[in-house]
Each structure stands twice: as C-alpha cells, then as structure tokens.
Amino acid sequence: MNISLQQANQALQQAIDKAVEISVPVNIVIVDNTGYLKAFARMDDALLGSIDIALQKAKTSMLFRMDTEAVGDFLQPGAKAYGLELTNGGLLGFAGGKPITINGQVAGFIGISGGAITQDAQIAQAGSKL
Amino acid sequence: MNISLQQANQALQQAIDKAVEISVPVNIVIVDNTGYLKAFARMDDALLGSIDIALQKAKTSMLFRMDTEAVGDFLQPGAKAYGLELTNGGLLGFAGGKPITINGQVAGFIGISGGAITQDAQIAQAGSKL
Amino acid sequence: MNISLQQANQALQQAIDKAVEISVPVNIVIVDNTGYLKAFARMDDALLGSIDIALQKAKTSMLFRMDTEAVGDFLQPGAKAYGLELTNGGLLGFAGGKPITINGQVAGFIGISGGAITQDAQIAQAGSKL
Amino acid sequence: MNISLQQANQALQQAIDKAVEISVPVNIVIVDNTGYLKAFARMDDALLGSIDIALQKAKTSMLFRMDTEAVGDFLQPGAKAYGLELTNGGLLGFAGGKPITINGQVAGFIGISGGAITQDAQIAQAGSKL
User: Fold this and answer.
1) pTM, to two decimals
2) Closest residue on chain A to D88 (Cα)
3) CA distance A51 to chain D (A)
C-alpha cells in the first residue's frame, strides 16, 4: 500500500491543524512507502533550517519503518550501533518522524520540524493516522 | 514580497487543475523568493525521475529571476556561457520553471516536471499568476 | 509488483549466461521497482569503472520507467531537454538499462556495463524478461 | 588472492542459509580485496536502511583488514582515535563486517545488516570461511 496525493494532503492538513492549535510554525514532509517526496508544506515563519531536518526525519523513519526516536536509541554515543547516524546520507534519531498508517497499514511516513521536540512529536502524531 | 503558504497552495492547485485537464501527472514545486521549498505535490503516477527535475527548474528560475527556457539560451553547447549549467549544483534550461507573480510582483517560483516539455510549460503557466 | 530475490537472481543468471555466450565480462545490477539495490554480480575481469555505470543505468531506467537509450534521446546537446543528465545525481542515456517484466508487468530494472554498448544492450535484453 | 564471483556467491549463499535458519532477512554485501563490490543480495523484507549499513561494514572491514567491531574500539567517544569514523566517507564500528578467508587467506570482505547486531555477526561469520 502506497499513499496517494489525496491521502498525503489529508495527513498534511491534520498536522497543520495541530500545529496551529499549539501555535508553532513547522515544516511538514510526507514521503511514500519507499521514501520519495509526496507532499510538503512550510508554514509561514517556520525556520529555514528545519526544512532539511523534517526531510531527514521522514527518511529515517522510512528506512527503518519505525518512529525516529526508536532509531535514536541505537545512535547515542556509547550505544552499540554508534556510527549508524553517518549511514544513508545522515540519520536523525529524535522525535518527529513516524509511519503513516491507513486503516492500520503503513502507507507512507511523516517528518515534522520547527518546534520543540515534544511539539514536533505531537504534530507528527496528529498526521500519522488516516 | 514573499509567497505565503496559502498563496503557494493556490498556485499548486491551479497547476494541478491544468494537469488534470490535459491528463498528465506531474510534480509541482513551489519555492519562495530566495529558493527555499514552500510547497510540493507529486500527483499519483508522476515519474519519480521528475521530482528532482521539478526542483531544479524552480531553483534555476529563482536564481536568475526568469523563465527556465530563457536561462536555457545561455546553456547550449556553442552558446557563450557554456559551462554555466554546472554552477549552482546544476541548472536546467528548458521550459517548466517560472516566476510566480501576485498582483504583478514576483513572490516565488514554480517548477513542473512529468509531461512533455510543452505540457510542463502549460502547467507552470497555469500556476504562475495569482 | 516488486521483484523478489529469487526473481532477481534468475534475471541475473540469464544475463550472465548471455555474457558468457558472447564472451564479455560485465557488471550486472538489479534494482527493485523504486530503485533500491536488490542483487548484483561483477563477473571476473569486468572493468571496475563499469560498476558505477551499471548502477547509473539501472537507476536511470527506473526513474523514467523506460530503456536508457530512450532517455538518451532527451540528453543530447541540442536536444530540447539538454541539462537533464545533471539531475537525479547524474543520468546515463545509452543502452544497457531496461525494465524487467514478469508476466508482462514491470517488477524491477536491470543495468549492464562492461562490454561495447551493443553487447551491454544484448545482455540487458537477456535478463529483462522472466 | 582475490575472491572470484563463484566464491563470492558461495559466501553469499552460506550467509543466506544462516539468515534463513535464524529467521532474519538481511542485506549481504561481498567486496573484493580492495573494496570493489563483487556480489550483493537483499533478502525479501530486509530493511531498506540496512543496504547502506551493510556496504559500510564491508568497506570498513576492508579498509583496516579486521572485523568491524575491532575497528569500533577506536571510534567510541573517549577513545584515542575519536573522529576516525568521519574518514573514508564514514566508518562503522559494530559487528557484521568481516574478512572472508579462503584456505586461511584473506580474499574479500563481507558486510551484513538487517538483524540485531548479534544476528548480523552470526550471519557474517557463516559467510566468512570458504
């Protein structure tokens, strides 16, 4: 199952609604099941440095098919897979990247950046279930 | 003047409407006045190879503040600026990238790829005036 | 439909059989439907410089879902899409990259490099139908 | 001594047999004595993010002619060679990369990724002796 543009736009809108609700402008990336960009929106006043962070979060979540913070457990200095963050052109292991499920099946991935990590996580959560 | 997300989404929708009308699935990139990604949509069945082409068209148009085909006049083998296409991480000089004007003022840039060049140009045109 | 490892290995073997028959050592790349490496073999004495060429051919074929020589028509100096070869991290527009069809459906892509272009094309052809 | 394609395929098959036995789909990379890709297989359902990790493990093992976990001792924060992991386009210092010996002589290198680190190590071990 691979996300359609209509579904991606719905996920994007759910994320924007949450971002507006908690008053933080973010970048929202939706990639498909194998990581190709499907939809994107940069809210007005979102940080320019967060565009690439949102892209990397969506990519990291796709590559390992899990939440970015779960990947992050392997990346910390002292963790057993230290160095992993240098593979695949760079991985990001903090919250804000998640699988998008449609009727319980993974169909794509969302990456959010622009707020505090807990805010990004909240917004990604809002866009992750259709 | 810099394009807002609402305006970018309007340009994006105008482009999609034209693409649907002429039956060709494309990638649509909107960048702001300084080239940062603002909005993106990949229509279902659009070629994966066209994502990067659409990005490069929007970037090329932004860098020189003109239509991509006007930049292209400088890039052909034999043209005086041959080699220019290797600058800025790669330039693309065929139609499908255009300034977006709002009330006659340039506010962002659109890049389209996925169809024949004349189709991409038509779709870019449709999304270039708000 | 996405190629399985067993199917990829069959395509790879068909290509090797043809390469042995016409006595030219090549690199054989099989990527899946969205371009991720699935199987690879470098025949003994195949040129080291051809590893990357085979990868780029498989990628180019995947990105536009056509034979690489069909993409090549757009890349020539003087062609309308001149500059296209600089997108997507580099494209290759000469023969040796092809879709792999299984019961008539595209399931992956093959890239061959190491021989003359006509030899690469012949070997790619041999591996392109299961 | 440099690994032949027939030998690389045998190492690859030994690794796959072990992976099937312990029920974990992995990516298997075989590089020759100087690090050029010789053979590759991605088992069905292996993580896409593990392709690059397997490549990096094989490369790291080749560059220092030792198991990746032995290289890892030098890479940890606090270790004397901290920063080493940024050389050579990125090094990986956890288990899953090993020299392949044929009759006791190093002839190539194997890199495995897709399972837990101990599983990857077990599978690399299985493919490391001909």
Assistant:
1) 0.95
2) A86
3) 21
Q: How much is the pLDDT for C2?
A: 96
Contacts of C36 in chain A (CB under 8 A): 34
Q: Which segment of A3-12, C55-64, C82-91 scores lowest on mean pLDDT? A: C82-91
List subunits contacting chain C, requiring 3 or more Cβ pairs under 8 Å: A, B, D
Residues B16-33: what's their mean pLDDT? 98
The tokens 């190629």 sit on which residue?
C3
What is the rounded distance in angstroms from the CA atom of residue A130 to the CA atom of residue A9?
A: 11
Range with lowest mean pLDDT among C12-21, C83-92, D38-47, D110-119: C83-92
Give the architecture (CATH level 2) of C5-127.
2-Layer Sandwich (3.30)
8 Å CB contact between B25 and B130: no
Location of structure tokens 């220092």: D64
- Which residues lie below 8 Å from residue A114, measured CB to CB, with a gap of 6+? A19, A24, A25, A26, A27, A43, A46, A47, A50, A54, A120
What pLDDT band is residue C41 in, cutting at 50, 70 and 90?
very high
Chain D CB contacts of A66 under 8 Å are none
CA angle B63, B66, B67 (to 5 degrees): 115
CB contact under 8 A, A38 and B42: yes
- Once rounded to an integer, what is the mean pLDDT over residues B42-58? 97
In the predicted model, is pLDDT for residue B77 greater than 80? no
Q: What angle do CA A88, D13, D103 make, to 5 degrees?
A: 105
